[in-house]
Specification:
This protein has helices at about 10-25, 35-45, 65-70, 90-95, 110-130, 190-195, 235-245, and strands at about 5-10, 30-35, 50-55, 80-85, 100-105, 145-150, 150-155, 160-165, 170-175, 180-185, 200-205, 205-210, 215-220, 220-225, 225-230. The chain is elongated, with a radius of gyration of 22 Å. It is an alpha/beta fold.
Length: about 250
């Protein structure tokens, strides 16, 4: 399957280079090239695409502003974004609009191909659940989730999660298989909705724990490995109800 993509850059040389890179990549199909984000927005009304190679600093409408419009879902699932810019200071903004990658000029074809391959992998990931549905039947419960870590989707098994810590716009996922936690740009509430309630419980404003990883309970605290986590008053009743099944 080829990914339909467009290139958007107000610098003619950069636009030509990106278009040439797209043409020499077998799984990409160039369906439009635009010298401004406004032109690209009009083009997307006429022809939805899978992938946008997008410059950031442009007149009238910046690449970040265009990405925010696309991120609202105006075009259904919406195209994925790979930023191509000479300014590295916009990397965090690119992360916040869920860009797949961030290429800093000047970059070569190897860098371009690596970023494009992420888009190809993402497209395959979206297709797999649909292709895997055999017939109307009960679907097995998923045993994993995918989290955005830096500029890639990382598969995390539920059985590997010890506990999850919320830090404003980020979460730290502490795993049994990793010495350091995984950092992802999402909220604890959004992540809580993706976790099976029979295996995970929120016991504090800033913590979700894997119930089968609790090794001890004392007063208003639970112990997971060498870590003690408080059970706040807001979640105490639900946690005590869980404990009552076993005590």
């Amino acid at each position: 399957m080829k990914l339909k993509c467009i290139a958007v850059d107000d610098e003619p040389l950069a636009l030509g280079m990106i278009a040439a890179f797209i043409d020499q990549t077998p799984f990409l199909q160039l369906v439009g090239r635009y010298s401004s984000a406004v032109e690209a927005l009009h083009g997307l009304h006429q022809q939805p695409v899978d992938l946008v190679f997008l410059d950031i600093q442009m007149p009238d409408l910046s690449g970040i502003e265009l990405a925010r419009v696309l991120d609202k879902g105006e075009y259904g699932v919406g195209p994925r974004i790979i930023f191509t810019t000479a300014f590295s200071q916009y990397a965090l903004e690119g992360y916040k609009v869920d860009a797949l990658d961030y290429l800093v000029k000047p970059f070569n074809y190897a860098d371009f191909l690596k970023a494009a391959s992420k888009a190809q992998a993402y497209a395959g990931l979206l297709q797999k659940p649909v292709a895997a549905l055999p017939a109307p039947a009960a679907e097995p419960e998923e045993e994993y989730l995918f989290l955005k870590v830096e500029y890639q989707l990382v598969r995390i098994a539920f059985s590997d999660i010890l506990y999850i810590e919320g830090l404003k716009d980020y979460v730290k996922v502490h795993l049994g298989s990793e010495a350091k936690p995984i950092l992802s740009l999402t909220s604890l509430k959004a992540l809580e909705e993706k976790l099976p309630a029979r295996r995970f419980m929120r016991i504090h404003r800033s913590f979700i724990v894997a119930l089968d990883k609790i090794s001890a309970v004392s007063r208003n605290k639970v112990q997971i490995g060498e870590t003690n986590i408080a059970v706040s008053d807001q979640y105490k009743d639900a946690f005590n109800q869980f404990l009552s099944r076993w005590v």
